[in-house]
Specification:
alpha/beta, 316 residues, globular
Length: 316
């Protein structure tokens, strides 16, 4: 088998060809931080059904090759499961690349990552900005301990903190950017307080990626990107629902990702038929027409404008 760096370069080239990786500085990070250092094992569909654990030191050479092929496939990998429930994963590389580029970091910035996962994303950030400017936090001590080991093997040492990501890491604030790799039901207020004015927050919410500009500790606003995103919840649990209840909604809506997003954004509190009427009347809007405003103790999602006709409260 060839060297990890060669495999990393091939994956980076694939991401470039797919249009997911454009910035040469991020391309260098993907080329020089091999994914396999962070995914020594994962759970994959087994040939006979169910799931099997593949790992880098498997005595069976065929299974070892399957582990390696999976690591360098542009797909998410289930890295931690408990009684069939997904606890942690390694995100799809193309989605990670798009998120990192949309984060728009510059030299000298400080970044907080919420949701450490395998540690690969933190390593990519550390490659770009330096260890001392990257903080990553996760609630599960097993996850943070494993991530520290993976990071050390790869030669990176950002601050890895065990704690509730919804509370951020105030001891290392302020941050210029906050990026979450887990889905939140609403934007935690602590993130605004720890983000420098003019900073950005990029987080999965519903089945999309929300990018907020922080104006002050009590006010942030922004829109969703045009990228679908299904992440594990902030405190574990499955990704957001991606199905439409069978309630007489036409088949075109049940198959439309933009309609599923609207239902997820309203936390399925709006009856599907009413949501369908909005979706159809507004021209089947895509994610980028929606946004979120956080002001004081209130926050709400909206279509087209914060004070427009369609607004839905967010609460966690």
């Amino acid at each position: 088998m060839d060297a990890p760096e060669q495999r990393a370069r091939r994956l980076a080239r694939e991401l470039v060809e797919r249009g997911a990786l454009r910035d040469p500085r991020w391309r260098a990070a993907f080329e020089e931080v091999p994914r396999e250092y962070f995914v020594p094992s994962y759970h994959a569909p087994a040939p006979g059904g169910g799931r099997e654990r593949l790992w880098w030191q498997d005595p069976d050479p065929d299974r070892r090759r399957r582990w390696q092929r999976g690591v360098y496939t542009d797909a998410p990998l289930a890295t931690r499961m408990r009684e069939g429930e997904l606890l942690s994963s390694s995100s799809q590389p193309s989605l990670m690349a798009r998120m990192l580029e949309r984060l728009a970091v510059h030299e000298g910035m400080r970044v907080l990552e919420v949701g450490t996962g395998t540690g690969w994303n933190a390593a990519l950030l550390a490659h770009r900005l330096g260890d001392e400017r990257v903080t990553t936090v996760d609630l599960d001590p097993e996850i943070t301990e494993a991530a520290r080991r993976h990071l050390a093997v790869a030669g990176y040492r950002p601050a890895v903190v065990t704690g509730d990501g919804a509370r951020g890491v105030p001891a290392r604030a302020p941050y210029d950017r906050i990026i979450a790799t887990c889905t939140v039901p609403a934007v935690p207020r602590a993130w605004l307080a720890q983000c420098a004015p003019g900073g950005r927050i990029l987080t999965p919410l519903a089945t999309g990626l929300l990018r907020l500009t922080v104006h002050d500790p009590g006010h942030a606003e922004g829109r969703f990107l045009d990228v679908p995103a299904y992440f594990v919840g902030l405190r574990g649990g499955p990704p957001p629902r991606a199905e439409v209840p069978a309630t007489g909604v036409p088949a075109e809506a049940r198959r439309a990702e933009s309609f599923v997003f609207l239902l997820a954004l309203t936390a399925y509190r709006v009856p599907p038929r009413a949501a369908y009427d909005i979706w159809r009347a507004e021209g089947r809007p895509h994610r980028e027409r929606y946004g979120v405003t956080v002001r004081g103790d209130d926050q709400w999602a909206w279509l087209d404008a914060p004070d427009g006709d369609y607004r839905w409260p967010l609460d966690g």
